[in-house]
């Protein structure tokens, strides 16, 4: 029993080390970016998005903004038109009817990518905001052979569990990328080179999946032999959802993509699922290995994540952290059984 705890504790330490393997370049040059933003019924979020876009601190000639109205039924189209009329480096396009071939927001993302004119495609969501130096942060991780740079998204507000979810997810992204076995990414903050995007056929190979625009694209780009990097800059934020049912739906959507992962990651996930269930037995029969090996390893992994992401390690986190894996397992199983809602569509992995 103790050997199992020690083995998985060492895996956590290995992942903690993997986080620190993501190094940025000491020198960088300014690359050019096409910011791609799909919008469907986002009239409530667009004023905050436009404000963040106006504050971007980067040479205007080196970036453009491509917005796509994905068959919205509110004032999204009018707001996009007004913004683009006053913003010289912004353009918008409209999809009048939801695409039946490219599911989810992939039709809007594909259109935005095809209309883009710069070398690097920078993806975000209409409900996100970002720091003025957002684009500059990606320059430090772009090098020859890079195809995909994964960022992360912080949830605004004072909800400790939501904060832990964001930091642990980002830590997993960073660890697996640092170790050369990238797992997933955040669709609201990721960069893809135009060359890599075109070489994999854009979203054409994964067009039948309603979700997974980030994870699935990452995996097919990795298979083409491109380098995958992780950008730890805490530059993108999203507002917390209001209401318990909406929060549950967000977490089911976040953790309910098991079958979208490669086989190695599925096996890795199942192994950790077994381990965390096994820990429940250890609590009652063999608590000593748990206290000596597992908890310190878990805290070291989280501390490594906080250091890389430049976030504070709060005292309450020490208490909540051991519970978090079981919350994640609950939502993963719940998503497998119930599915989740996305833009009015019921989704099952």
Description of the structure:
The chain is α/β, with parallel strands linked by helices and 349 residues long. The chain folds into two domains: 2-19 and 259-336, no CATH class; 23-242, Spore Coat Polysaccharide Biosynthesis Protein SpsA, Chain A (Alpha-Beta Complex), CATH 3.90.550.10. The protein is built from 13 helices and twelve strands. The chain has helices at residues 2-20, 46-54, 76-86, 106-115, 134-139, 160-178, 194-199, 215-223, 244-255, 263-285, 287-309, 315-320, 324-338, and strands spanning 33-39, 63-70, 90-95, 120-123, 128-130, 146-150, 153-155, 190-193, 227-230, 236-238, 340-342, 345-347. The strands form three sheets. The chain has a seven-stranded mixed β-sheet with strand order 3-2-1-4-8-6-9, sandwiched between helices. The chain has a three-stranded mixed β-sheet with strand order 5-10-7. Strands 11-12 form a two-stranded antiparallel ribbon. Helix 3 (76-86) links the parallel strand 2 and strand 3 (90-95). Helix 1 crosses helix 6 (160-178), helix 9 crosses helix 13 (324-338) and helix 10 crosses helix 11 (287-309). The longest helix is centred in the C-terminal third of the chain and has 23 residues, at 263-285. The model has no long low-confidence stretch (mean pLDDT 87).
């Amino acid at each position: 029993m103790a050997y199992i705890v020690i083995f998985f504790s060492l895996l956590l330490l290995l992942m903690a080390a993997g986080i620190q393997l993501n190094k940025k370049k000491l020198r960088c040059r300014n690359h050019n970016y096409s910011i791609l933003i799909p919008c469907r019924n986002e009239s409530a979020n667009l004023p905050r998005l436009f404000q963040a876009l106006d504050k971007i601190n980067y040479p205007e000639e080196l970036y453009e903004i491509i917005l796509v109205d994905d068959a919205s039924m509110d004032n999204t189209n009018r707001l996009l038109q007004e913004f683009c009329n006053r913003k010289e480096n912004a353009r918008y396009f409209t999809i009048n009817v939801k695409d039946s071939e490219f599911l989810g927001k992939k039709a809007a993302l594909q259109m935005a990518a095809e209309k883009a004119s710069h070398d690097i495609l920078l993806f975000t969501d209409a409900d996100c905001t970002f720091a003025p130096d957002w684009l500059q942060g990606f320059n430090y991780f772009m090098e020859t052979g890079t195809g995909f740079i994964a960022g992360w998204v912080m949830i605004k507000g004072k909800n400790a569990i939501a904060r832990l979810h964001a930091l642990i997810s980002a830590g997993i992204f960073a660890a697996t990328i640092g170790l050369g076995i990238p797992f997933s990414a955040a669709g609201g903050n990721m960069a893809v080179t135009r060359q890599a995007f075109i070489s994999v056929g854009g979203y054409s190979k994964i067009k039948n999946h309603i979700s997974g625009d980030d994870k699935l694209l990452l995996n097919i780009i990795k298979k083409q032999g491109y380098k995958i990097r992780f950008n730890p800059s805490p530059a993108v934020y999203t507002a917390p959802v209001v209401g318990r049912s909406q929060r549950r739906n967000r977490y089911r959507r976040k953790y309910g993509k098991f079958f979208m992962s490669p086989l190695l990651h599925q096996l890795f996930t199942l192994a950790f699922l077994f381990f965390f269930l096994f820990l429940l037995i250890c609590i009652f029969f063999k608590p000593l290995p748990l206290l000596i090996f597992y908890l310190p390893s878990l805290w070291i992994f989280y501390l490594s994540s906080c250091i890389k992401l430049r976030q504070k390690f709060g005292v309450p986190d020490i208490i909540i952290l051991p519970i978090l894996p079981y919350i994640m397992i609950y939502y993963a199983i719940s998503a497998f059984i119930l599915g989740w809602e996305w833009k009015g569509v019921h989704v099952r992995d």
